[in-house]
Write a structure and sequence with these properties.
It contains 19 helices and eight strands. By secondary structure, it is α+β, with helices and mostly antiparallel strands. The protein has three domains: 103 residues, 2-Layer Sandwich (Gyrase A, domain 2); 152 residues, no CATH class; 183 residues, no CATH class. The strands form three sheets. A four-stranded antiparallel β-sheet has the order 1-2-4-3. Helix 1 packs across helix 3. The two termini are 26 Å apart.
């Protein structure tokens, strides 16, 4: 039975200190993200026990309540409505500003930079998914020769967003880094304007879209710094005229005569490197990427892959890296299944697995990670082994010339099937990806089955002692560093 979003929101708020303690409300694909002024007012255990809550994670000062895809947007809207009346007072609180400053000091520069770049691209994921699915449907209709009067309209609908994605990246970059969003979009729009083909740089004409999202990101970032520099120096009476003009002029010229060319070189290198990596060492590359993705997520380094995925989608129509990384979820599912079989007397953990497994099959792995593999320890490692095997399977076929890609980022597991694309038939592409998932399930299951004894999670401990010991040393989802992969 589906939980009512309003009831879930009403149950969550008191457990995070009430509306007065919430300083920000946002969400990603699966998580409600709440910034709180006083972390000590949050009751993590009670929050995890709320019906519909699949897990709770803390990332800096942000409490992330795992709710699952779809429902998270509805609950966020309800929470936002309950919090809104006191938002102005909270945001004006000096104490909240000091706490935010303290959190920024505690964050490493690399993780902070990656998180901010990810914040630019994450809001684009719904459009990438929608347009990616439409592109896939259109491709099937074209190949089958069906509805010829509709396919041009579908092609236009699916392609329009990608044609102008640079503008959205520029808008989001300026918003994230403290500039005026529309100025960031205006500067980034230069990169996709057809007229840039008349501009010559180093003896060569620029191409519209050259540099892709990386060029748009760099252009808008430069525009943000130019704008802030102008606002600190231009008299107030002239600010409304001079600042936008100087921002657009300086940033656009720098983009046309430098950034677009440099970003184009980098973007081309990314596409070439991805193709060569899979063509020459596909099985090994898949093994490494599939096996190390969960640890990368724990370190927050997976966020560096988001611009790379987007660049590949813009260049080639799909990213060949995401299906390899998605195998980590398959290993996680296989490991959870093995734990379910081996710990047949542990009612609590079996109940957790039964409730979390459907989400895991659809690529939402947080409930299984926080409720099963990390607390037990070894199943996390065997899940990585399953992911490595699945990645090697898909990578092996890439070495044979059968590339499997995804037209959007975000979904994984079975939810990625509608977004699959490649250089072969849709049936073969789906079969290879499905074979990778099956390999991940089987290897994750067998590896976990081998290390988890029927009495408990540790092969060296009886069931009762192991359960108590694991409870003491389990990874608390409120303090675990595993970040959100969406």
């Amino acid at each position: 039975m589906r939980n009512d979003p309003a009831s879930t929101a009403a149950a969550i708020l008191p457990l995070v200190g009430g509306p007065a303690n919430v300083i920000s409300v946002a969400h990603c694909m699966t998580r409600l993200r709440l910034g709180v002024a006083d972390p000590s007012a949050v009751d993590g255990e009670a929050l995890r026990a709320v019906p519909g809550v699949l897990g709770v994670v803390v990332d800096g000062g942000s409490y992330q309540v795992v709710l699952g895809p779809g429902v998270v947007a509805e609950v966020t809207a309800e929470v936002d409505a309950l919090v809104a009346p006191t938002a102005a007072d909270r945001l004006a609180s000096k104490g909240a500003e000091l706490r935010a400053a303290q959190r920024r000091r505690n964050a490493t520069p690399v993780k902070t930079a990656l998180r901010r770049i990810a914040n630019v691209f994450v809001p684009l994921i719904p459009a990438l998914i929608g347009c990616g699915i439409l592109a896939g449907v259109n491709g099937l209709l074209v190949n089958a020769g069906w509805l010829p009067g509709l396919t041009p309209a579908l092609a236009a609908t699916a392609s329009a967003f990608m044609a102008l994605i640079a503008v959205f990246v520029g808008y989001g970059t300026a918003k994230e880094f403290g500039g005026t969003p529309v100025l960031g979009g205006a500067v980034a729009a230069v990169t996709v304007y057809p007229g840039v083909a008349k501009v010559t740089v180093f003896g060569m004409h620029l191409a519209p879209g050259q540099g892709g999202v990386l060029g748009a990101l760099a252009a808008a970032l430069l525009g943000t710094y130019v704008e802030r520099w102008c606002r600190s120096r231009v008299p107030g009476a002239l600010d409304v005229l001079l600042t936008p003009t100087v921002t657009v002029l300086v940033s656009a010229l720098a983009t046309l005569y430098g950034l677009m060319y440099a970003a184009g070189v980098v973007s081309t290198a990314i596409g070439t490197a991805a193709d060569r990596l899979l063509a020459t060492t596909g099985a090994f590359a898949g093994l490494v990427l599939g096996g190390l993705f969960l640890p990368l997520v724990m370190l927050g380094l997976h966020q560096a892959l988001i611009p790379i995925h987007t660049t590949l989608i813009q260049q080639q129509g799909y990213t060949v890296l995401l299906p390899l990384l998605a195998m980590a979820g398959a290993g996680q599912v296989g490991a959870a299944m093995a734990v379910y079989v081996r710990l047949r007397h542990d009612v609590s953990i079996r109940t957790t697995i039964k409730s979390a497994l459907p989400a895991g099959l659809l690529g939402v792995g947080e409930p299984l990670i926080y409720g099963v593999s990390l607390p037990l320890g070894r199943p996390f490692l065997t899940a990585c082994a399953g992911g490595a095997a699945g990645g090697a399977f898909v990578g092996f076929f890439a070495m044979l010339g059968d590339k499997v890609g995804a037209t959007a980022i975000g979904p994984s597991g079975w939810a990625l099937f509608p977004l699959l694309a490649g250089n072969r038939s849709p049936a073969l592409t789906a079969a290879i990806y499905g074979g990778g998932l099956l390999t991940g399930y089987v290897v994750g299951f067998l590896a976990t089955y081998a290390v988890v004894r029927p009495g408990g999670g540790d092969p060296d401990e009886p069931h009762e002692a192991a359960a108590a010991h694991k409870a003491d040393r389990s990874a608390d989802p409120l303090t675990d560093p595993l970040a959100d992969p969406h």
